[in-house]
Automatic annotation (TrEMBL):
Keywords: Coiled coil. This is Lipoprotein. Residues 244-271 form a coiled coil. It comes from Parabacteroides chinchillae.
Amino acid sequence: MKKTAVCIALAALTLAGCNDTEKKAQAHLDKARAMYERNELFSAKNEIDSIRANYPKEYKILKESLALMRRIEYKEAERTLAFCDSMMPVKQHEADSLAKKFTFEKDSVYEEIGNYIWKQQTIERNLKRCYIRCGVNEKGEMYLASVYFGSRPIEHTGIKLSTKDGMFAETASIPYDGGVNYRFQDLGNTTEVVTYKGDNGIDAVKFIFTNEKERIKVDYTGGKPYVIYIADGDKKAIVETYNLATVLSDIENMRKETEKANKRMSYLKNKLDKS
């Protein structure tokens, strides 16, 4: 008889403990719902995370918290869309204004993405000279290029930029491949062009952008020594191209975020409808 009474007491204590755990989990869920209604989405997600971490066996509440999490993520996606919809026209107007100073080049047969070139830096205006040129494609991906023209090849693979105060930046070294590093000879003269895309040249671009008013020395590296100083017009071209690249990159990122948000909303709506 005593053994039976002990078992009943233990069962009662266990049930009470379970009820207490459920109440605590429910309290977190209720708090998360209230935060959701107040649009405190980050805090609401934290409350749901605490339910998952601390009450892994409260399956009913976990199921309800999953549904709430999906509603939170749906609302976050709506916010993203609203932000992109409001900012896209602003950024597009900014890009259009900046692009007026550039020439747009695109080979409709071979290229899917066109490039913006500063009007004073188009190739036909810069034959037979050593200089640093640049450009940016429609997605905001900027490139820098070192051009050498002379009677003898130097076979360079990169450049080092420096100012008189000792500050400097370097591009990556680009081995000769006949593509992003190519050379040709014409009438006894050699032309070399090495192109630095993305991370291969971004440090150099930012260095020029930051030091536009300074005299910038350029050492052609990887081959025979050769030095030039960036002309003021070329520094301006690089600075203006960087400005355009920043805006175009913002637009491209917003396009990607819009696409991602729409896909996420479609997925979440399907899940919520089923539940």
